[in-house]
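Continuing the batch. This is chain 6 of the set; chains 1 through 5 are on the previous pages. Same settings as before, nothing changed between runs. Recording input and output for traceability.
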Amino acid sequence: MNFSSKLLENAVNEVAHLPGIGKRTALRLVLHLLKQTKSHTNHLTQALDTLVNEVKLCESCHNISDVSICEICASPKRNTEIVCVVEDIRDVMAIENTVQYKGLYHVLGGKISPMEGIGPHNLTIESLVEKVKNGTVKELILALSSTMEGDTTNFYIYRQLQEYDIAISTIARGISVGDELQYTDEVTLGRSIMNRVPFGESLEN
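Output for chain 6:
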């Protein structure tokens, strides 16, 4: 792809680094921004700059937040005895959209995947174990995607917490095997949360 401007080429190359964006799509997006008013484009760049420099991870659940403790963890209306373990913020948003779950979350930041070089130490599993050790959590819901990596991560967490007096459940398999949680419709996801089953039973199926 030949560019008439080095500035244009640099911008296209940076946008093309985004997931799912190829060079042609990146070029179309950059040209669209050039057609907008400078104030419109400046608002976008300022929002991204603020996001990168000021966004935080909740000290309790590791969800993306504006403050040290996110709104969900800080809410007195949430059931602090139930913690739902998810991969990332997209899964939190998906479950919250069902308006059926009233507990807290724990965001792992990924799934165990040896092929991608992601092991347990790359995730927030250690802080999850510490959270259970404190004794305030009565039930842990494993709500990871129904993929090989998700099942591997579920089983690892299950083995780490077997010695503690805590109920460990997993979302019902209304979600198709191989599906990512974030793409599941809200009705199916909501029912899967409400009809969760003990994790030990899921191993027998």
